[in-house]
């Protein structure tokens, strides 16, 4: 409603895995469009500047996911403090200068301080995402009427439609399924949109779901030489503009979940009817909530397994059921590992048509 | 949970920025010269509506023109009209080069705006920071805010007190001239008096007031022999500067004429409180918050309740019994309230009054509209009031509107009464002719007369004469 006058907030989460950036920068034949970290950063900075250019009030935060740790690289609220100390020249707009130098400097320091053995560790993408959510939560909290305005006289106020943009280069890390799902639900609660751009590597199942469930857009970058154009056309417009100028969204979303027991992405799973934990095989006792299941059910499910695999299930699979009492899902598609008590739903939001999830007990 | 609803200021800001129509009326060469400066491109870009910004951004990094149909494919069906309006504004601003089938940015704009985003170049359009000055301590942000506030309130206070006969500090001669030229004040009897446009002006948000005056300044610039492009780029440069940093006047002037223009502007803008200089002859200056927030919608001044304590956001409590409690000790705000409130008591930090039929009538006769009163009350409502939904008591809002309607019961219009037609046919003929011209204000077939407006008289008279001439 009042998007026109107020700024919008953008948090950018950068996946800075040295291994994958090295792979991404290799020339043909491995990559049709090689993209080095340096080129990526220069295009990213142009994008960040574009966001700040749109409104004086726009705020920005940049988070980096490094192997094993996540760091806040830049945020508009902290930048004001040390801005006067930085060097300015007559040819550039001071706020752009500050963003550019801070982001690049801190990335370089972090990457240089990495030791050899650390580089192989998976990146803390979830950590960075959660930090971004915490930051969004902080700035969206309405300031109480008595709170003092900041020393610079700028009243932060409530910015509508916070957005998070994840720029990922790593493949899915199946151990991070549960934290990512929890992050998605928090984002839904905060009404934050998660946009995802997969710059390198295969499609990620979890990030696709993140974008889909929060109403964001997921883009698998094909022409990597046109990164900036992709970024600007799809991720720069705030939600209010997306009502007029549409942005690409996925036609097909891979809704597969990872099982809690082996952290594998599974096509067919078994869901505890009490806590909604997902397992890849029928278990007598739920490992999460310790619920015991009757022997008869287990036998029946085990007997049905070959049938399930061929898809000739005797039970009708109910699709698109939302979990009652569980975290709210916008579009009725939900696999809800964090639900306190769902009462035995079949979570099956399936566009690939190959998966059903059965529940135990 | 109560949702925070922001009312009056946001409603106003949904309309396009007041500078854009002015820019649209400029010639293509003027605008292209303006677009040579990256800071001007950035500032103008900020003033655009979000959709227009996105269109510019989509085209910015493309090397070649793109077919209009390709771009239109991104637009959802319901947004088509919105999109077309956005495009036509961009065409009129000459940001898009005029070509019906291909969309491309004006090459000058494209180059400069790219430079603004990526930095670099040698235009120096963002202002040269002054080297550190060892002799004087730097001016603090609080000091700058205080200065800007003092200058700005002097202007407003002068306006509001001009009708009451009280003497308040006079702003400089140039400011008075500007106020007079903009029609906010007039001197019918020798002394300057506030006009009805001036009363309306007082109830605008500070941001709108600032732009009103600057627009007038721009219109006057050409008469004074100043180069409009130089004036605009100087303003835009100020708007991209950083608050609390000192800038040097050296190195930004190109030609002799440009230098003169800038010198004149430094003097003028110092009077309005947009920038601060230690001495009028100083070669360095600080932009104030009034200048650095020119292209944003945030309130230009941190507080308009003065340097004293008190809530920062709003200060007016309005009750259903028409009583107004204003927590302020600021003479300007009291004076503005006095425009439409009958003030009763004054305390050190509180002014109490009530909205009466007479006080509102007085405001209406000054040319202030009921909507303006209501939006002023909304914009300055006390945080306690913000808990109410709706913000202002409905009874009071309705009553203020009713008082306005009362004033509009009679409408007078000049014109001519046509009577004494010899036959109904004659009457019908002339009446039909007048109806075609759309000048009939009132008619009565039984009495065979009708009343036509002033502009239609010559035509009707001619028609009747032709008729009678033809018959004779």
UniProtKB/TrEMBL annotation, chain A:
<dbReference type="InterPro" id="IPR004600">
    <property type="entry name" value="TFIIH_Tfb4/GTF2H3"/>
</dbReference>
<feature type="region of interest" description="Disordered">
    <location>
        <begin position="309"/>
        <end position="331"/>
    </location>
</feature>
<dbReference type="GO" id="GO:0005675">
    <property type="term" value="C:transcription factor TFIIH holo complex"/>
</dbReference>
<keyword id="KW-0804">Transcription</keyword>
<comment type="similarity">
    <text>Belongs to the TFB4 family.</text>
</comment>
<keyword id="KW-0479">Metal-binding</keyword>
<dbReference type="GO" id="GO:0000439">
    <property type="term" value="C:transcription factor TFIIH core complex"/>
</dbReference>
<dbReference type="Pfam" id="PF03850">
    <property type="entry name" value="Tfb4"/>
</dbReference>
<feature type="compositionally biased region" description="Polar residues">
    <location>
        <begin position="310"/>
        <end position="322"/>
    </location>
</feature>
<keyword id="KW-0234">DNA repair</keyword>
<comment type="subunit">
    <text>Component of the 7-subunit TFIIH core complex composed of XPB/SSL2, XPD/RAD3, SSL1, TFB1, TFB2, TFB4 and TFB5, which is active in NER. The core complex associates with the 3-subunit CTD-kinase module TFIIK composed of CCL1, KIN28 and TFB3 to form the 10-subunit holoenzyme (holo-TFIIH) active in transcription.</text>
</comment>
<comment type="function">
    <text>Component of the general transcription and DNA repair factor IIH (TFIIH) core complex, which is involved in general and transcription-coupled nucleotide excision repair (NER) of damaged DNA and, when complexed to TFIIK, in RNA transcription by RNA polymerase II. In NER, TFIIH acts by opening DNA around the lesion to allow the excision of the damaged oligonucleotide and its replacement by a new DNA fragment. In transcription, TFIIH has an essential role in transcription initiation.</text>
</comment>
<keyword id="KW-0863">Zinc-finger</keyword>
<dbReference type="GO" id="GO:0006355">
    <property type="term" value="P:regulation of DNA-templated transcription"/>
</dbReference>
<dbReference type="InterPro" id="IPR036465">
    <property type="entry name" value="vWFA_dom_sf"/>
</dbReference>
<keyword id="KW-0862">Zinc</keyword>
<protein>
    <recommendedName>
        <fullName>General transcription and DNA repair factor IIH subunit TFB4</fullName>
    </recommendedName>
</protein>
<keyword id="KW-0805">Transcription regulation</keyword>
<dbReference type="GO" id="GO:0006289">
    <property type="term" value="P:nucleotide-excision repair"/>
</dbReference>
<keyword id="KW-0227">DNA damage</keyword>
<keyword id="KW-0539">Nucleus</keyword>
<dbReference type="GO" id="GO:0008270">
    <property type="term" value="F:zinc ion binding"/>
</dbReference>
Automatic annotation (TrEMBL), chain B:
<feature type="region of interest" description="Disordered">
    <location>
        <begin position="293"/>
        <end position="312"/>
    </location>
</feature>
<keyword id="KW-0539">Nucleus</keyword>
<dbReference type="GO" id="GO:0001671">
    <property type="term" value="F:ATPase activator activity"/>
</dbReference>
<feature type="compositionally biased region" description="Low complexity">
    <location>
        <begin position="293"/>
        <end position="311"/>
    </location>
</feature>
<keyword id="KW-0804">Transcription</keyword>
<keyword id="KW-0227">DNA damage</keyword>
<comment type="function">
    <text>Component of the general transcription and DNA repair factor IIH (TFIIH) core complex which is involved in general and transcription-coupled nucleotide excision repair (NER) of damaged DNA.</text>
</comment>
<keyword id="KW-0234">DNA repair</keyword>
<dbReference type="Pfam" id="PF18307">
    <property type="entry name" value="Tfb2_C"/>
</dbReference>
<dbReference type="Pfam" id="PF03849">
    <property type="entry name" value="Tfb2"/>
</dbReference>
<dbReference type="GO" id="GO:0006366">
    <property type="term" value="P:transcription by RNA polymerase II"/>
</dbReference>
<protein>
    <recommendedName>
        <fullName>RNA polymerase II transcription factor B subunit 2</fullName>
    </recommendedName>
</protein>
<dbReference type="InterPro" id="IPR004598">
    <property type="entry name" value="TFIIH_p52/Tfb2"/>
</dbReference>
<dbReference type="GO" id="GO:0006289">
    <property type="term" value="P:nucleotide-excision repair"/>
</dbReference>
<comment type="function">
    <text>Component of the general transcription and DNA repair factor IIH (TFIIH) core complex, which is involved in general and transcription-coupled nucleotide excision repair (NER) of damaged DNA and, when complexed to TFIIK, in RNA transcription by RNA polymerase II. In NER, TFIIH acts by opening DNA around the lesion to allow the excision of the damaged oligonucleotide and its replacement by a new DNA fragment. In transcription, TFIIH has an essential role in transcription initiation.</text>
</comment>
<dbReference type="GO" id="GO:0005675">
    <property type="term" value="C:transcription factor TFIIH holo complex"/>
</dbReference>
<dbReference type="GO" id="GO:0003690">
    <property type="term" value="F:double-stranded DNA binding"/>
</dbReference>
<feature type="domain" description="Transcription factor Tfb2 C-terminal">
    <location>
        <begin position="398"/>
        <end position="464"/>
    </location>
</feature>
<dbReference type="InterPro" id="IPR040662">
    <property type="entry name" value="Tfb2_C"/>
</dbReference>
<comment type="similarity">
    <text>Belongs to the TFB2 family.</text>
</comment>
<keyword id="KW-0805">Transcription regulation</keyword>
<dbReference type="GO" id="GO:0000439">
    <property type="term" value="C:transcription factor TFIIH core complex"/>
</dbReference>
């Amino acid at each position: 409603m009042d998007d026109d006058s107020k700024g919008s907030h953008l948090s950018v989460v950068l996946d800075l895995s040295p291994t994958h950036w090295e792979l991404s920068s290799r020339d043909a034949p491995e990559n049709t469009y090689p993209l080095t970290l340096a080129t990526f950063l220069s295009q990213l900075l142009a994008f960040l500047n574009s966001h700040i250019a749109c409104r004086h009030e726009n705020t920005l935060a940049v988070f980096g996911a490094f192997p094993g740790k996540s760091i806040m690289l830049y945020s508009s609220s902290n930048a004001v403090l040390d801005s006067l100390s930085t060097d300015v020249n007559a040819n550039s707009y001071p706020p752009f200068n500050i963003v550019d130098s801070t982001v690049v400097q801190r990335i370089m320091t972090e990457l240089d301080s990495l030791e050899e053995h650390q580089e192989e560790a998976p990146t803390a993408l979830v950590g960075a995402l959660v930090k971004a959510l915490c930051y969004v939560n902080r700035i969206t909290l309405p300031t109480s009427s008595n709170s003092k305005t900041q020393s610079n006289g700028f009243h932060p106020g409530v910015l509508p439609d916070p957005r998070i943009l994840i720029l990922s280069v790593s493949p899915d890390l199946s151990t991070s399924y549960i934290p990512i799902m929890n992050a998605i639900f928090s984002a839904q609660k905060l009404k934050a949109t998660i946009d995802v751009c997969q710059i390198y590597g295969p499609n990620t199942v979890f990030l696709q779901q993140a974008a889909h469930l929060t109403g964001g857009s997921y883009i698998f970058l094909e022409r990597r030489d046109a990164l900036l154009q992709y970024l600007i056309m799809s991720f720069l417009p705030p939600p209010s503009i997306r009502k007029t100028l549409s942005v690409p969204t996925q036609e097909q979303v891979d809704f597969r979940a990872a099982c809690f027991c082996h952290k594998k992405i599974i096509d067919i799973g078994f869901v505890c009817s009490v806590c909604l934990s997902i397992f890849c095989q029928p278990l007598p006792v739920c490992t999460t909530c310790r619920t015991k299941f009757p022997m008869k059910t287990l036998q029946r499910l085990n007997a049905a397994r070959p049938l399930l695999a061929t898809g000739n299930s005797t039970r009708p699979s109910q699709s698109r059921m939302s979990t009652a009492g569980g975290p709210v899902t916008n579009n009725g598609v939900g696999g809800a590992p964090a639900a306190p008590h769902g009462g035995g739903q079949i979570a099956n939001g399936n566009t690939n048509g190959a998966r059903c999830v059965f529940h135990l007990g | 949970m109560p949702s925070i609803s922001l009312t009056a200021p946001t409603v106003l800001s949904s309309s396009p920025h007041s500078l854009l129509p002015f820019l649209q009326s400029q010639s293509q060469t003027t605008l292209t010269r303006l677009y040579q400066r990256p800071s001007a491109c950035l500032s103008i870009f900020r003033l655009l509506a979000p959709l227009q910004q996105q269109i510019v951004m989509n085209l910015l990094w493309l090397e070649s023109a793109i077919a209009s149909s390709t771009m239109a494919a991104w637009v959802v069906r319901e947004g088509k009209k919105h999109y077309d309006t956005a495009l036509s504004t961009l065409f009129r601003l000459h940001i898009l080069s005029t070509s019906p089938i291909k969309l491309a940015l004006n090459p000058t704009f494209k180059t400069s705006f790219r430079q603004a985003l990526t930095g670099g170049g040698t235009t120096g359009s963002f202002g040269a920071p002054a080297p550190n000055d060892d002799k004087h301590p730097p001016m603090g942000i609080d000091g700058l805010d205080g200065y800007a506030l003092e200058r700005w309130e002097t202007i407003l206070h002068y306006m509001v007190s001009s009708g009451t006969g009280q003497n308040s500090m006079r702003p400089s001669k140039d400011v008075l001239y500007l106020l007079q030229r903009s029609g906010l004040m007039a001197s019918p009897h020798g002394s300057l008096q506030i006009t009805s446009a001036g009363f309306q002006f007082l109830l605008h948000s500070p941001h709108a007031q600032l732009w009103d005056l600057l627009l007038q300044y721009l219109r006057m610039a050409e008469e004074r022999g100043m180069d409009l492009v130089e004036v605009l780029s100087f303003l835009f440069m100020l708007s991209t500067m950083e608050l609390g940093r000192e800038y040097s006047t050296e190195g930004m002037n190109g030609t002799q004429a440009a230098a003169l223009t800038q010198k004149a502007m430094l003097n003028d803008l110092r009077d309005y409180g947009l920038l601060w200089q230690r001495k009028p002859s100083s070669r360095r200056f600080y932009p104030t918050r009034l200048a650095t927030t020119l292209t944003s919608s945030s309130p230009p001044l941190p507080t308009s309740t003065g340097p004293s304590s008190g809530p920062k956001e709003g200060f007016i409590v309005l009750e259903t019994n028409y009583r107004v409690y204003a927590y302020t000790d600021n003479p300007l705000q009291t004076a503005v309230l006095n425009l439409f409130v009958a003030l009763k008591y004054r305390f050190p930090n509180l002014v109490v009054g009530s909205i009466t039929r007479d006080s509102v009538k007085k405001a209406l006769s000054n040319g202030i509209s009921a909507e303006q009163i209501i939006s002023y009350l909304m914009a300055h409502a006390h945080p306690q009031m913000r808990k109410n939904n709706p913000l202002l008591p409905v009874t009071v809002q309705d009553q203020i509107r009713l008082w306005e309607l009362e004033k509009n019961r009679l409408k007078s219009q000049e014109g001519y009464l046509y009577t004494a037609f010899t036959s109904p046919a004659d009457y019908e003929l002339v009446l039909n002719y007048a109806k075609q011209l759309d000048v009939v204000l009132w008619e009565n077939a039984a009495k065979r007369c009708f009343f036509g407006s002033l502009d239609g008289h010559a035509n009707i008279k001619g028609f009747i004469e032709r008729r009678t001439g033809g018959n004779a």
